[in-house]
Each structure stands twice: as C-alpha cells, then as structure tokens.
Amino acid sequence: MMHRPVVKAELVDWMRQNQTPVQGDLASVLKQAQENNIPVIPHETVVYFQMLIQLLQPKRILEIGTAIGFSALMMAQAAKEAEIVTIDRNPEMIALAKENLATYDHLKQIQLLEGDAADVLLELTAQQAADNHGDSHRFDLIFMDSAKSKYVEFLPMALSLLTENGVILMDDIFQAGEILTPIMEIKRSQRALERGLRRLFDEVLNNPKYLTSILPLGDGLLMIKPNRESK
Ligand SMILES: C[S@@+](CC[C@H](N)C(=O)[O-])C[C@H]1O[C@@H](n2cnc3c(N)ncnc32)[C@H](O)[C@@H]1O
C-alpha cells in the first residue's frame, strides 16, 4: 500500500494494524487489488466509511471511480439496504469490476455505469431534473475517487443529485502534500490536477454556502455538505 507522508508513518501503521481488518469477500478483493497494484481506499478510510455509513444509513450511494469494485462492495456490505451506483471509464477496470460484482455483490445492490463520469453525471442529472423534484434519483452519499482534477467540475452536478441531508466525500485531496507547493514549482504534467484541486478549495473551503471538513485519512478526505442555513 502506498505511503503518503501526511500523518506520521508509525501512526498510519498503528491505525491499519489495530482497526478490524476487512473480512471474507472484501479481503479477497483487497488481496486482488494489492497483488495487481490497483489503488483502492486505505484501511483507515475503509473503517471511517463503515462508521459513517452506520451513522447516516444512506439509501442511495453514488461512487465515481469503481476500479475493481472494492469500495463499492465495502459500502454495500456496510449498508445492506442501500442501492449503490458506481461509475468507471476504464475498460480493464470495468471488466474486473464486473467479475467481482458478479461474484460478491450477493444482494445485487450495485449498478455499474460505464463511461466518463462527466457524461454519466450529465445523464443522471437529466433523469433527476425529469423527476419533477422527486428524490428517487438523488443520493444520500456521493463518493468521488477518480481523476482529482475533475472534482471541481463534477461538484455542481453532484450537488444537484444530493438529497437534503446528503454528503459528498472526495478522496486523495492532499496529493501527498503537493497542494502546499506553488503551482509553478510543480511538474508540468501534474499542474492540471493541482489547478483543479486548488479551484475546488477556492470554491468550497471557507465559503458560507458549504460545510466542509478535511480528514487526514489516507491521502486526505474532504467532506462537503451544502450549508442549508446560509440560504
Ligand atoms: C483510485 S481508483 C478507484 C478505487 C475505488 N474507489 C476503490 O477504493 O476500490 C480510480 C478509478 O477512477 C476511474 N476514473 C478516473 N477518472 C474517471 C472519470 N472521469 N470517469 C470515470 N471514471 C474515472 C479510473 O478508471 C479508476 O478505475
């Protein structure tokens, strides 16, 4: 598992070793990810999600970035009543995710939508708009774990798909601390990603329209909730 030096390495190890490991089916999918170097959410983020899901009891969850289905299956296991819609655009990942979902999604909770999230989100928001203010196409929890440069572009669509008390989570927002580096000192190939993240921070942090919280789990997890009181 990649180490990102945000929290002291010894504490990260301690958190990973001392919180209940994933069991059964999930352990098999995690092993597959580790053996094939496929990035999935780290253990401290897994246990945080398990807790959050117990507290929020989401009925519908949207994930952007399925990879091989590890986090989708983890959320399905934590929220047995929930429907989960997960999006990915990478054909290799989609093929592996389909196999894993066919094997491990025992309650058939997970729907995999194939395509670029920018297009799929547009379709989902169109379905929601056609629903005449109903909630049947909305989500109680939206988890973004895809191309980080695009989070800021996905945000307006995610907000329009969120239920009244819904929450958005975005993973890997620290970029191993690179968000602290001035943009011109960052490798050219990384700048689009960093610019996207900084536009996101300018939009949501310290803005009365939103409640936000940044958790130093994994490579940084940003939670966003519309601040209904600021209307
Ligand atoms: C870090 S992996 C997701 C890991 C997964 N959430 C987990 O923890 O098990 C990121 C995935 O996002 C997908 N992805 C990146 N940008 C995307 C986009 N714009 N639309 C759809 N999928 C995207 C990639 O193909 C990749 O499979």
List keywords for this structure.
single chain; 231 residues; alpha/beta; Rossmann fold; seven-stranded mixed sheet; globular; binds S-adenosylmethionine
Describe this protein's structure.
The chain has one domain (about 10-225): Rossmann fold, CATH 3.40.50.150. About 40% of the residues lie in helices and about 20% in strands. It is built from eight helices and seven strands; from the N terminus they run H-H-H-E-H-E-H-E-H-E-H-E-H-E-E. The model has no long low-confidence stretch (mean pLDDT about 95). It has about 230 residues and is α/β, with parallel strands linked by helices. It has helices at about 10-20, 25-35, 45-55, 70-80, 90-105, 115-130, 150-160, 190-205; strands spanning about 60-65, 85-90, 110-115, 140-145, 160-170, 210-215, 220-225. Strands 3-2-1-4-5-7-6 form a seven-stranded mixed sheet, with helices on both faces. The radius of gyration is 17 Å and the shape is globular. Helix 3 packs parallel to helix 4 and helix 6 runs parallel beside helix 7. The site of S-adenosylmethionine (SAM) has 18 residues, from helix 4 and strand 2.
Biggest β-sheet description: 7 strands, mixed
Average pLDDT reading: 94
Number of domains: 1
Q: Under CATH, the topology is which? A: Rossmann fold
The gyration radius over C-alpha positions equals 17 Å
Contiguous low-pLDDT stretches (5 residues minimum) are none
CATH class descriptor: Alpha Beta
- Helicity, as a percent range: 40-55%
SSE pattern, N- to C-terminal: HHHEHEHEHEHEHEE
